[in-house]
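During the second half of the funding period, the structural biology subgroup turned its attention to how the target accommodates small molecules. The most pressing case was (2R)-2,3-dihydroxypropanoic acid, which had performed well in the primary screen but for which no bound structure existed. We therefore specified the complex as follows and requested a full 3D prediction, including the ligand pose.
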Amino acid sequence: MSSKPTVLVTRKLPDAVEARLAGGYDARLNPDDTLYTSDGLVAAADGADAILPCHTEKFTADVIARLPASVKAIANFSVGVDHVDLQAAKDKGIIVTNTPDVLSDATAEIALLCLLGAARRAGEGEALVRTGGWKDWSPAFMVGTQVTGKRLGIVGMGRVGQVVAKRARCFDMEIHYHNRSRLDPALEAGAAFHPDLDDMLPRCQFLSLNCPNTPETRGLLNADRIAKLPDGAIVINTARGGVVDDDALIAALKSGKLAAAGLDVFNNEPDIHPAYRTLKNTFLLPHIGSATRETRDAMGFRALDNLDAIFAGREPNDRVA
Ligand code: DGY
């Protein structure tokens, strides 16, 4: 019998990560990358010492209650942990970790792609070229919103938000931010802090959501808040769908209150609100913020660093519960 800890790995991970896993653990891999149901997850965890899941597995209070007592840790392959009921895990004595830092650059790249894509109507333009619908050029053709020199409000000035600000400065954007606490001046780099989100919104020609999805931020971008944005503002979401009230955002995109939205994350992925697909002023991506080879390797290694610490009896660096 192996003396290595048994780890249930819920999704197919990068080869280098699976190779390192094999060295230190008895890994139950998922080579076909089949999505587990809740029942399947609980059954597969039988006898496992830890689980290494992605945000695609939902650890509700019920699922956590049904996990075998052998499971000591949930070492997420994600920075977001809204798929885990942290209190239920804590109550059951299960350690939960995430993978911060390593995906900030990749996610900020996608935030800028969403910002530019929404502002310059990239989805619409690409579809025209692909489908043969591009017939002419005129001064009125595909006119969008210029990005350079505009005001960008960032909600959630953590690691990702700070990189978004840095990249946006290359477009001479004026940065405003709302965060639980004010950053040190060196990190702020001239950005204007707004302790009250509602005070920041009227200044935001662009609004980028970069906060975690928590009970406090759920549905944060609702009809009242959208009404406070300037007419023609553009919303970017690379955080989590849960921070947006879909009906309110869709109504504002339909009415023209908002010029456009660039979205990489949605409520109820991948069965997103169908209106997003039919609106011309949306630029849509399938939750690919962290999807680069470098970042996916780094996320796996970070999850393994956390597991290694836990099984060596040390405190993991990225403990969230
Ligand atoms: C994250 O790490 O939270 C990404 O959204 C992928 O899950």
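Two results from this model are relevant to the next phase. The first helix runs from residue 15 to 24. The first strand starts at residue 6 and ends at 9.
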